[in-house]
Write a structure and sequence with these properties.
Helix content is about 75%, strand content about 0%. The protein has 24 helices and 2 strands. The chain is globular.
Length: about 500
């Protein structure tokens, strides 16, 4: 198609928008924890909601493309992104009026709607790119997905303005690329899918996917979602904790994202030398090493080295997985990539974000209970958290930990700003936090180090356990390399041999 560069640009912009939203949200976790009193598990559930919705909608969008069309789905995504941004501005008034549970639900729903928009875009742009660049699918899918780390870079830079500009405005900055991709989507024509052009039936697309190769790919991609997106939900906060500097953590996050953005433009030559599956195997091994190295890091130079290894490992995983699907199942791309996206994003949402949050709470609370039970009794959350079939735990309350660490500076300032309104129902949650501080501030100097040590231990152990996931992926890729040597399903043809029509 003559306009395929414009369509690729629109897809690139959707991932920039998603990356900005993801990065800014990750950079705001400490603010949300201190301002609203969330535990690590609750923060993980909020970020997980943003990924869970992403996965569900990728699946639905992928199945609808052949009936609704690329263009209409992109317009629906545009609406979702705008609605999600508008909801953010109600967060603090809702907290002041109704407390922690209400703002938790508001943020969760906003992130879920944001994820719906992202999921629709992801469900569209992957098969679209494979269709308009049939001769170099893996290469252009990696270029397309360079938009994700590019968005992370922009979002990471935006995070530096927190404390200066309201977090709601910072979070809503993803609307800029949203409006840009919306303009292209409304204006440009899109190609028809393989089913619309009569190349294959809907049932035929599913039939070609039946077999162990695709099942193993789905399992591997669920692991990719966990280790890449689940970890990235937390990596900014965790590295900032390890380095005792939020700024350094954000800087490290930006650095790895810049590295990923640049490397994804060179996937084609690498794949040409070692094959797509070879690249995936190498990436998984390097990624596991990178996570372990970060977990034991204790200095800035070492952490930059460890983060470099981790970035090299995760850079090619997601887009190259899609490239393998596009190469092996070209006529089934819309549904195959939808199933892959669903597996990856759902794993990140249900397992990655919440699971890594749970691991932090588990190891942190275990550490502080053993070393300083009196401190734990004062700073523990008022509620238990559960993750899957693992035992229920009571983590450290983020607001209490924040007050202990800054010696009550933030809560005292907020109460002074509230003034006489502190006794109204609109500020009941803030008042409860301040009352806790007044009752426990005499222990702040005693509790500060145990709390800090426990949260640091939880962060390190969470990453160390997570390193087992890419190690598992490496085994799966090795199975695919050894057991399945054919480059694609027999009988599949490239869309380059067809003449796709145009959807107006």
């Amino acid at each position: 198609m003559e306009n395929r560069k414009k369509l690729l640009t629109a897809g690139f912009l959707t991932l920039i928008a998603a990356g900005i939203g993801f990065a800014v949200r990750a950079g705001l976790l400490d603010i949300w924890s201190k301002q609203y009193g969330f535990t690590m598990t609750e923060l993980g559930q909020i970020t997980g909601g943003g990924l869970l919705g992403f996965g569900l909608v990728i699946l639905i969008a992928g199945f609808l493309i052949d009936f609704v069309g690329y263009k209409r789905l992109m317009v629906i995504a545009l609406v979702c992104h705008v609605v999600s941004a508008l909801m953010l501005f109600a967060a603090t008034p809702v907290f002041n009026a109704s407390g922690k549970d209400a703002v938790y639900m508001l943020l969760y729903i906003s992130m879920f709607i944001f994820a719906i928009g992202n999921g629709i875009c992801e469900g569209v742009i992957n098969p679209l790119t494979a269709a308009i660049y049939p001769e170099q699918k893996t290469h252009y899918l990696n270029i397309l997905h360079a938009g994700w780390p590019a968005g992370l870079v922009i979002g990471g830079l935006i995070v530096f303005a927190k404390g200066i500009i309201g977090w709601e405005i910072l979070m809503a900055t993803f609307l800029v690329p949203v409006l840009m991709y919306g303009f292209i989507a409304v204006k440009e024509p899109f190609p028809k899918t393989a089913r619309e052009s009569g190349a294959i039936s809907y049932g035929g697309m599913f039939a070609k996917l039946i077999g162990p190769f695709f099942v193993i790919l789905l399992i591997a991609h669920a692991c990719v979602g966990y280790v890449e997106l689940g970890t990235d939900s937390w990596i900014n906060k965790i590295t900032g904790k390890i380095l005792s500097s939020v700024t350094l953590g954000t800087t490290l996050f930006i650095y790895t994202s810049v590295l990923m953005t640049a490397l994804r433009f060179f996937a084609g030559p690498i794949v040409h030398r070692i094959s797509s599956l070879g690249l995936l195997l190498l990436s998984a091994v390097v990624g596991a090493c990178g996570l372990y190295l970060i977990s034991i890091g204790d200095s800035v130079p070492f952490m930059f080295f460890a983060a470099t290894v981790y970035a090299l490992g995760k850079t090619f995983l997601w887009p190259t997985m899609l490239g393998v699907v596009g190469e092996r199942f070209p006529q089934s791309a819309t549904v195959a990539m939808a199933l892959m996206g669903f597996a990856g994003m759902t794993s990140a949402g249900l397992l990655g974000g919440p699971g890594i949050g749970y691991k932090q709470d588990y190891y942190a609370s275990q550490h502080i209970q053993q070393s300083n039970p009196e401190t734990y009794a004062r700073v523990k959350a008022p509620n238990e958290n559960q993750f899957l079939f693992f035992p229920a735990i009571t983590g450290i309350d983020g607001a209490k930990a924040g007050m202990v660490e800054d010696n009550g500076a933030a809560i005292t300032s907020e109460v002074e700003i509230a003034g006489d309104r502190i006794n109204s129902e609109d500020f009941s949650a803030l008042k409860a936090q301040y009352e806790w501080w007044e009752a426990n501030k005499e222990y702040a100097s005693t509790d500060a180090k145990p709390v800090s040590d426990a949260t640091l231990h939880g962060s390190r152990m969470a990453l160390r356990v997570t390193a087992l996931v890419p190690a598992t992926m490496a085994v799966l890729y090795l199975i695919l390399i050894v057991a399945f040597k054919a480059p694609k399903e027999e009988g599949d043809v490239h869309l380059a041999d067809e003449a796709p029509g145009t959807e107006l």
